[in-house]
Amino acid sequence: TIDRATQQQPGPHPMTAPDIDYDKYLGVVTPRFKLFEKTEQDAVWAALPGQFQIVLTQLKHCNMFEWGLVCMTKAYIDMQEEAGKKWSHRAPRDEAHDWIKVAKKLLDMHNLAQTVASTAKAAETTALT
């Protein structure tokens, strides 16, 4: 049945970001993310669906943009498509925003893991000297 107030079917839309196990996803997404970091920026940007480009451009205007977010977003989109959750180019921008939120959380977790690893390595090196 359709909710007359929103003209949508009840329940989560199939294109919205699901509740996910971020630790598991991070392990899968990280190699792709690192590959996209080394890829020419124009190529990664051009490979993003238009809705994602629009949302990321809006974030840039709000000073909430970082290149790593573009790379992680592309890696997340690719991972979802491989899992059979292909992005619909007819989906609204707010759904792209939801996917970018997931990518942002994955990026934050990746950056934290990198910081912890480098801090541990520095502490180890200091302890050995």
Description:
This protein is mainly alpha-helical and 129 residues long. It has helices at residues 22-38, 41-47, 50-61, 67-82, 93-128.
Give the SSE map.
Layout: H1 22-38, H2 41-47, H3 50-61, H4 67-82, H5 93-128
What's the short story on this structure?
With 129 residues, the chain is an all-alpha fold. It is elongated, with a radius of gyration of 17 Å. It contains five helices and no strands.
**Count of beta strands:** 0
Order of helices and strands: HHHHH
**What multimeric state do the chains show?**
single chain
Please identify the structural class as seen in this structure.
mainly alpha
Question: Outline, from the CA principal axes?
Answer: elongated
Beta content comes to: under 5%
Cα gyration radius (Å): 17 Å
The percent range for helix content is 55-70%
Mean pLDDT: 83
Q: End-to-end distance, in Å?
A: 69 Å
Count of alpha/pi helices: 5
Summarize the biggest pleated sheet. Answer: none
- The low-confidence runs, each spanning 5 or more residues with pLDDT under 50, are 1-17
